[in-house]
Design brief:
Helix content: 25-40%
Number of domains: 2
Largest sheet: 7 strands, parallel
Number of strands: 12
Structural class: alpha/beta
Strand content: 5-15%
Radius of gyration: 22 Å
Strand order of the largest sheet: 8-7-6-9-10-11-12
CATH topology of the largest domain: Rossmann fold
């Protein structure tokens, strides 16, 4: 119930003091003293309740109104919900929300926000790093160094490279901007060809989840149109695969996108092209990908997301010479935690004032 004398914000809800805020582990790091201080400044009347990975709280949850959800499972999240009858808003520290949009949270009608816009820059830099390394044949040059062999290799200039971005949101847009600076041709698909917002990806806590980002946050303007060639809807994926030298997966995991890269799609990939996945592992049929890699039907793959994480040591992906495996680290930089806390605190103040929140998730779309 709204506090007496509260004023209605743009969301139609009344301003009210926040009594309690729950915080679960975020970005595989402990909250720093300055993070907690910033949260207290944003909600000075609120009691802070720490929630463990397993969903165990260090205090009562009955009056918690807001939850900053980091690395906890869907089951642990649902246990927290059951003990927090006043919970009205959950902010996901990742952009991916499939473990937040549980049947319980949908039934409660919770407002869900996410971390779109927080991780775009480091992930885009990771993608360009890999494209440059492969185009300039860095893996082979390092092997020659280990063998003490002097053998110059011919590289490819990026002006001769086509990058296909699957999911043109804040991540995909950041990739497009960086690629455009190198003179690459950039083509893309998004949920609807005319959309100004689609999804990309964000971080995963160590052993936890990464997230898909859509370009709806206040500090993300999306790709510069001059850096983009053709932008199509999902029906344009086959053509994108056939034309791209690098295919970058930067789209959300939904029922419609699970295993979007399968045997059928891999058969359409341009010979010699590389797949780069900085989104969800479940976007890719890994068995189909291993077959395509072993048979040389595609040039190679850069994988930063996997169906099972940590990736088991028995995975054949470790052994394939045309695969680069990284431990879901594309999102990581020294700035992401600061941006994550800043976004949450901004929304915390908005929530207290009854204003519209940033990065509200559409439960129907799943991001």
């Amino acid at each position: 119930m709204a506090a007496a004398g509260g004023t209605a914000g743009p969301s139609g809800k009344s301003a009210r003091p926040i009594t309690a805020v729950a915080l679960s582990p975020i970005l595989s790091a402990r909250y720093r003293a300055r993070d907690l201080e910033r949260i207290r400044e944003a909600a000075p009347e609120a009691r802070l309740v720490m929630v463990s990975h397993e969903g165990l709280a260090d205090g009562p949850l009955d009056d918690v109104q807001a939850l900053l959800r980091g690395w906890i499972s869907a089951d642990a999240f649902d246990r927290v919900l059951a003990k927090a009858p006043q919970l009205a808003w959950v902010h996901s520290a990742s952009a991916g929300v499939e473990n937040v949009l549980t049947p319980s949270s949908r039934e409660r009608g919770l407002v869900i926000t996410n971390a779109r816009g927080v991780f775009s820059q480091p992930i885009a830099e990771y993608v360009l790093m890999m494209i440059l390394a492969i185009s300039r044949r860095l893996p082979q040059l390092l092997e020659l160094q280990r063998e003490r062999t002097w053998q110059p290799l011919e590289g490819v200039e990026l002006r001769d490279v086509t990058i296909g971005i699957v999911g043109l949101g804040s991540i995909g847009g950041a990739v497009a901007d960086l690629a455009g600076a190198f003179g690459c041709r950039v083509i893309a698909t998004r949920r609807r060809a005319g959309d100004t917002a689609e999804s990309g990806v964000g971080p995963r806590a160590a052993g936890g989840e990464t997230a898909d980002e859509a370009d709806r946050s206040g500090d993300e303007s999306g790709p510069t149109e001059a850096n983009l060639g053709r932008v199509a809807g999902p029906e344009g994926l086959p053509r994108l695969l056939a034309e791209s030298d690098f295919v970058v997966l930067a789209l959300p995991l939904t029922p419609d996108t699970e295993s979007v890269i399968n045997d059928e799609m891999l058969a359409l990939v341009k010979p010699g092209a590389w797949l780069i996945n900085v989104a969800r592992g479940r976007l890719v049929d890994e068995r189909a990908l291993v077959r395509a890699l072993r048979e040389g039907r595609i040039g190679g793959a850069v994988l930063d997301a996997f169906r099972e994480e940590p990736l088991p040591s028995s995975s054949p992906l470790y052994e394939l010479p045309n695969v680069i495996v990284t431990p879901h680290t594309s999102w990581s930089s020294g700035r992401v935690l600061d941006r994550s806390i800043e976004l949450f605190c901004d929304n915390l103040r908005r929530f207290a004032r009854g204003e519209e929140l940033l990065n509200v998730v559409d439960p129907a779309a799943g991001y």
